[in-house]
Structures are given as structure tokens and as C-alpha cells.
């Protein structure tokens, strides 16, 4: 099998199983096996694969054909311009969540421009791979950043990513807000589980390979927000802010939960125009 034959074979196997972007996925898997860029495949399309390379490629294609997420096979996902290691222990970071970091950076930079010279203390709840916390620490190293998760396995991945990317984050293990109780925070940032039970049952097969606890937010998807609305006042400094990712149809319900507790809220859409981030203060 040469490179061109491999690309065609992989694409055909993935199309048979209904995999979206079959050619793209097949190309990336072949490029990974050969340790080259995707572009290089087209320059070396007549290059023959070794027996081991062909065996590794076929195994990768069969895994993807079985609806294992591409990112888990590649062990990599890009987020905020950084390359994160991911595997079955953590949720795969999505581009939609970058809006959380962009809004957080706007807030901390505005403080700096106003001459507020203080140590900013920020925490990422439900950190998973550490994508949010590590991005915060990378792009604003003046902040003291923490990350928490109920899953010790997820924290192991987050720690590994922090070391790989050379940032300093303090990690805490525990359920919900327990690891940060008794302290005051300038910023709480979170991408919590917010998928309803009904929605989860209708997800693409790839979703079921990711940790279910990172998706399921109860019957109506609002369990985490209810609890957070009860706890946030005791956790934030007087000028502190909470930034949350939400499902596209949850803005009104989540805002109402926080307004009932005396918070002001702002809703921000993602690039597709869907409600995605709420800032509560």
C-alpha cells in the first residue's frame, strides 16, 4: 500500500461506517502514522508504507470506524492555539469554550488598564483536561489559577498538560465547590455538565466514548447551575465574577436562577450566534 492507496482505502472504510469528514480523518491518521504533516502526504503520494506502518494505519482506521473520537486516537486537541493531550479520561475541549477564555481575558485586561494592580485569583471548576485553567495561566500568567475536578483521572491529565505547556496551575480534587469553599475568588470560570438526559440519548456515537459525567446535567440540564447559584455568593469577592458556558437554549433559565439570588447577568453568543457564555456578578 502506498500513501495514495492508503488515503483512498481509509476514506472508503470510514464512509462505510457513516463517519463525517472521512477523507480528512483518514488523512490525519495516516499522517500521524508516518510522522508527517497532512500536506506532505500529497507530495509523497507514491511512497510505500512499511508493513508496520500499514498495520498501525489499519488499526487506527478501524478504531475511528468504530466511532472512537479522532482526538483520542491522535491523543491531541487544539484549544486557544495550544496543543492539549487528551484521552478517554477527559472531555475533548471544544472551540465553543474558547469564548469563556476570551471574555475572561477581556475582563482581566480591563482591570489592568484601569490601574487595578492586584493578584487575581481564578478557579476553573470541572477542569477536565485543564484546557480552561491552562489557557488562563498561559495568556495571563499574572493570575493565580486553580483547577478542580471530581475525577482524579482527569486531574492527572490536566497536570500532564500543564507540565507539557509550561504553565503553573494549582490542582484540587473534589466534588463541585467543596475544594474551594472557605475562600474568596475574583473569578470562577466553568464549563459544567449541561446536557439533558433526553439530549444525551440522541447524541452522536462518538459522544458516548467521552466521560458521561462531563455531559449530563440532570433531567433539564440545569442541576449544576442551580447548585452554583446557591453557592456563588459565598465564594466570590465583592467585585468577583462568574463565567459559565451554557447550552444554546439555556440562557433565560440560567439567568433567572442567578437573578433570583441578586446577580446581574450578561449573555454572549458564540460565532454561530447561539447563546454560549453568561457572566454573573
UniProtKB/TrEMBL annotation:
GO biological process, one term: methylation
Origin superkingdom: Bacteria
Release factor glutamine methyltransferase N-terminal domain sequence ranges: 8-74
Positions annotated to bind substrate: 191-194
Catalytic activity: L-glutaminyl-[peptide chain release factor] + S-adenosyl-L-methionine = N(5)-methyl-L-glutaminyl-[peptide chain release factor] + S-adenosyl-L-homocysteine + H(+)
Residues annotated as signal peptide: none
UniProt: S-adenosyl-L-methionine binding residues: 149, 176, 191
GO molecular function, one term: nucleic acid binding
InterPro entries recorded: DNA_methylase_N6_adenine_CS (IPR002052), HemK-like (IPR004556), N5-glutamine_MTase (IPR050320), PrmC_N (IPR040758), RF_methyltr_PrmC (IPR019874), SAM-dependent_MTases_sf (IPR029063), Small_mtfrase_dom (IPR007848)
Pfam families attached to this UniProt entry: MTS (PF05175), PrmC_N (PF17827)
CDD domains: AdoMet_MTases
EC number(s) per entry: 2.1.1.297
Keywords assigned by UniProt, alphabetized: Methyltransferase, S-adenosyl-L-methionine, Transferase
Residues covered by the Methyltransferase small domain: 121-206
SUPFAM superfamilies, A to Z: S-adenosyl-L-methionine-dependent methyltransferases
EC primary class: transferase
NCBIfam families reported for this sequence: hemK_fam, RF_mod_PrmC
Known role: Methylates the class 1 translation termination release factors RF1/PrfA and RF2/PrfB on the glutamine residue of the universally conserved GGQ motif.
Family classification: Belongs to the protein N5-glutamine methyltransferase family. PrmC subfamily.
This protein's name: Release factor glutamine methyltransferase
Gene symbol of the encoding locus: prmC
Amino acid at each position: 500500500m502506498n500513501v495514495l492507496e492508503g488515503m483512498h482505502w481509509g476514506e472508503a472504510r470510514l464512509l462505510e461506517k457513516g463517519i463525517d469528514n472521512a477523507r480528512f480523518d483518514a488523512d490525519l491518521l495516516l499522517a500521524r502514522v508516518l510522522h508527517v504533516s497532512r500536506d506532505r502526504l500529497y507530495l509523497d503520494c507514491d511512497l510505500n508504507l512499511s508493513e508496520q506502518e500499514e498495520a498501525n494505519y489499519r488499526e487506527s482506521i478501524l478504531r475511528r470506524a468504530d466511532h472512537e473520537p479522532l482526538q483520542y486516537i491522535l491523543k491531541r486537541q487544539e484549544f486557544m492555539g495550544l496543543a492539549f493531550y487528551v484521552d478517554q479520561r477527559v472531555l475533548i475541549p471544544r472551540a465553543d469554550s474558547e469564548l469563556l477564555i476570551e471574555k475572561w481575558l477581556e475582563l482581566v485586561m480591563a482591570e489592568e488598564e484601569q490601574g487595578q494592580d492586584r493578584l487575581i485569583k481564578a478557579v476553573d471548576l470541572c477542569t477536565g483536561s485543564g484546557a480552561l485553567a491552562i489557557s488562563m495561566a498561559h495568556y495571563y500568567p499574572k493570575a493565580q489559577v486553580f483547577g478542580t475536578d471530581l475525577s482524579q483521572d482527569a486531574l492527572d491529565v490536566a497536570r500532564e498538560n500543564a507540565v507539557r505547556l509550561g504553565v503553573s496551575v494549582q490542582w484540587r480534587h473534589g466534588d463541585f465547590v467543596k475544594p474551594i469553599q472557605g475562600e474568596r475568588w475574583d473569578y470562577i470560570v466553568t464549563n459544567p455538565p449541561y446536557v439533558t438526559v433526553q439530549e444525551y440519548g440522541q447524541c452522536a456515537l462518538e459522544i458516548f466514548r467521552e466521560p458521561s459525567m462531563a455531559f449530563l446535567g440532570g433531567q433539564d440540564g440545569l442541576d449544576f447551575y442551580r447548585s452554583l447559584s446557591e453557592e456563588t455568593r459565598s465564594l466570590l469577592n465583592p467585585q468577583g465574577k462568574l463565567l459559565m458556558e451554557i447550552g444554546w437554549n439555556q440562557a433565560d433559565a440560567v439567568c433567572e436562577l442567578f437573578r433570583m439570588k441578586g446577580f446581574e447577568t450578561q449573555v454572549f453568543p458564540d460565532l454561530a450566534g447561539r447563546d454560549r457564555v453568561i457572566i454573573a456578578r
